[in-house]
Amino acid sequence: MKQKPYEKMYAVLCGAVSDAIDALEDPRNGLYARCLLEKAILQAEELYLSFGEEIETGDS
User: What is the pTM of this model?
Assistant: First the structure.
């Protein structure tokens, strides 16, 4: 069964939030946590945009 785009976006974002929270146990990891979250939001955006392209081309 193919995973739905929103499920992928949710998994990407929740994984990054979890990793960022773990990283923030050491306050010196603030920049690392920020990078994790920025990467995840870009991945989620890419999934969202690619899903829109699938709908437009009928590739869903």
Answer: 0.76
Residue 59 is given by DSSP the state -
| Structure-token match 């929270």, residue found | 21
Query: Can you say how many angstroms the Cα of residue 40 is from the centroid of all Cα atoms in its chain?
Result: 4
What are the residue boundaries of the structural domains of the chain, listed by start? 5-55
Of how many residues is the chain composed?
60
**Which residue, 35, 8, 38, is CA-closest to 23?**
35
Would you call 47 helix, strand, or coil by DSSP?
helix
CA geometry: angle at 17 spanning 26 and 52, to 5°?
Answer: 150
**1-58 confidence digits (pLDDT tens):** 677 778 999 999 999 999 999 999 999 999 999 999 999 999 999 999 998 777 667 7
